[in-house]
Design brief:
The protein has five helices and no strands. With 119 residues, it is mostly helical. The chain is elongated, with a radius of gyration of 15 Å.
Length: 119
């Protein structure tokens, strides 16, 4: 059985983001395992989970609310990675070359999906 969210481009992009975030977080120091590493991974996973959960709602407005939660989680990923840059766990260049384009693409597609659900 295939569920509706599995056909959504934003869900596939969110899965790509999870892979990128895990690869980045694997390089964080061990002392961050239960702090920043865990936080950024959970935030990345939350994006895809909210897309999936929202897609099962009966009303578009409810689905839009879950997309808004996904956007919030995406921004949490951005903030976490900016902290990682500040702590020298990730370079600005690596951020810009690897994950930043994906974050931007997913962000704007989530915004567009939210708007389409609310109109």
């Amino acid at each position: 059985m295939k569920f509706g969210f599995e056909d959504l481009e934003v869900w596939h992009l969110a899965l790509e983001l999870i892979d990128e975030v895990y690869d980045i977080a694997d390089k964080f120091p061990p002392m961050e395992l239960y702090n920043l590493t865990s936080q950024v991974r959970r935030a990345a996973i939350s994006i895809s989970l909210n897309i999936a959960e929202g897609s099962g709602r009966h009303h578009k407005r409810d689905f839009a609310r879950f997309i808004r939660l996904s956007i919030g989680s995406l921004l949490e990923v951005v903030a976490s990675l900016k902290i990682a840059i500040r702590r020298n766990y990730l370079t600005q260049a690596d951020y810009e070359m690897t994950v930043s384009p994906l974050l931007e693409k997913l962000y704007f597609k989530l915004i567009a999906l939210e708007k389409s659900l609310l109109t």
